[in-house]
Structure formats: C-alpha cells, structure tokens
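Can you give me the bound-state structure? Components:
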Amino acid sequence: MPDKLNDADLARQLESWAASEPAAELSPEIRQKIRGALSPSLAPVTPLPSQGWLILRFLAVFVLCAGGLIAILGKTGFRLMTGFQMGAMAAILVGAGILLSRALASKMIPGSRQALAPTLVLAVSGLGVIGVTALLFPWRASSDLVPEGWPCAVLELMIAVPATVVFGLLARRGVLYSTAGLGAILTGLAVCLALIPLQSQCMFQRAPHLLLWHLGTGMLVVGLGALIGWRGRDFWIP
Amino acid sequence: MTRYQSADPAALDDLVGRVSPLLLRYFGASRVGRSDAEDLLQECWIRIHRSRHTYRSSEPVMPWIYAIARHTRLDAYRKRRRRESREVLVAAVPETGHQPNADALMEQDSLDRLLASLPEAQRDVIVMLKVTGMSLEEVARATSSTVGAVKQKAHRAYAALRRALGKDGNDAG
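Here's the bound-state model for the whole set.
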C-alpha cells in the first residue's frame, strides 16, 4: 500500500477490500432464536404519522397552551412593551419552538433527516433572547430585583415542568433514546412555551429582570433536563 | 418492511435473513467477539421489532435500521463500561485493552482489524459508507448528523487509516 493515497483511492481500496471479504454468515441457531423471540409478538402496527404531522402536533400544543395561558394570566406585559420588542421576542421564541418541535419529531423516528443540531438551536435561541433583551429593553436598575423576580421564576417553573411532561407524553410513541439531548429538547420546548405567557403578564419589562429571572430560570430548567436525561440513561439501560 | 409492519411472518423471516449479515458485520467491526456481536444482533432485532411502527414506507429503510443498531451498540458499550467501572471498585481489575495496537494491525491483515483502530464515530461512518454501501445522506440520517459532518468524519477516518497503513508498511519493511 503506497504511503500517499488520497481519500478517493483509499475509499476505492476499502470498497474492494470489503467486497472481497466473506459476508458474515448468520448461523441457523441465531436466526431461529431471533425468529422465536419476535414471532410471538408479531402483530400489525399502525405507522407513526409523518414527521410534518408530528411537528404540527407539537406546534398546536405549543400555540394552544401559550394562547390559553396568555388569556388566563393577562396581557399587562404586552401593554408595557413596544411593538418592536414584542415582535422580536415573539419571533425568537416561536422560531425556537418550531425548530425544537422539528428536533423532537426527528428524535422520535430513527434515521430521520437532521437539518440543525438541537444544541445549536438551543444555543442560538438563548443568545437571541439575550441579544434582544440586552439591546431592546431598558437597563434600569431596581432595588427590588429579588422580590420582583422570584414570582416570575416560580410561574415559569409551574408552566415549564408540566409542559415538559405533556411534550414527553406526546413523543412517547417514538423511539426515544434516553440522552441528554432529548432532555434538553423537551425542556427547551417547554421553556419557550413558558416564556411567552410569562412575558405577557410580567410588569417588570427591564433587561436585568428578564435576563436573570426569565432567561436564567429557563436555562436552569434546560440544564436540569439535560442532566436528568444524561443521568437517567444509566437507569434506563437495563 | 411494510409487510413486516402488517405482521407477515414471511416478511420478518426475509428481513432477518437479508439484513442480519450486514448488522453482524457492523457489530463485528466494533472490537467485539463473534458471540458478543451475535448478542448485539439479537438485542438489535428486539429493538427493531419494538419500534417497527416508527418506520415510514416513504423513507429509506437502511438508515432507520442502522440508527437503531447504532444505539444498540452504544447502549451495550455504556452498559459494559458501567459494569467494568464497578468491577474496578471491588478489586483493581486490569484494563482488558480494547484499543488494538499497531502491531496487531500489522499481523492481522483484515479489514475489520484495520477499522477497529478508528474512533467509534469514524468507524461507524466508514463501515456504513464502504462496507454497507450507504450514501452520504443515508449515513447522515443513521448517525443523526449532517452530510457535512459525515464527510468530515470520513476524511478524518481516511487520514487515520493512511497513518495506520503507513505504519504497517514501515513496520513490515
């Protein structure tokens, strides 16, 4: 074998090498074992709907829950925001919701096409919210940062945790390999959903409050989701 | 595959017969013995069976099967690693050494031995591309990544293989 092979030569070499190797034979005993293990539970199954339908289902839940919670919690925050602030924040949160719905749907079906890595979507969404908040919202300091903030954090948790469970239940028919990525996607989608009604009812539309209590709590939830997914893997693998 | 989803026993038998040798080759390339590869194959078929409702006839079947096979192998690896770490806690069991050295490569002139020298992610890509004959797009689907990432892994794998082959050649000479 010459020292300086280019990729194409090496690829051809590997192909011819693979073709010349004898195929791995399946012994009749193993074949019988597999057949014996699968045949008793061989029943017709209904295939999952298409990936597009799965995405639409997640988005429908996302929109209905966000809309319902806005109706319940009120629109005080929206009245305090400018149209530009509202539009930019909505675009980022809804955009992240769409991309994460797509990521979750592709996690349900093995061998799905992956347009964007979920970690990239989460990172860009987080940076987007930070950027919009830092640039478009006032940086007025408040002496009551903690008393003003913790009710928002509690409310965000009260929305995000059940929402994570709902999205998890919707996704359970798929093949969900227990990974940190899945935990982060589920909680990321739930946090995006929670941030919309939170923004609509919050009367403290200032950058420090939004970054610390809204986004900070959201990042904590996503981190916990990833951690639970990662640690849970050890328990779920028999 | 759609006949298998409709509970046709002949379709199951046909699928097992056609796909198993490829899967056995795939598992065999990951530094496990024949009996471990057969265990992985059986576990993989159980997973394929349980998740057969997630296959859609409009999509290619091989990326779907290999995505399940890949997770089967990863889970088995994590399970083995966990078991080994527990064993080390009880008594300091020496590492069994899953990383073959270059001398072993030189002695064993086989494709599987050569592929065993690659990191797992790169080996997956090369086995799927060159041994199974899947396209870049199909490998990207099976490994939950993008075509660009697959190309990059393949390029790095070729560089590593060139180094391994070069060392073989030098050692032999």
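A couple of observations. Chain A has a mean pLDDT of 86. Chain A is about 75% helix and 0% strand.
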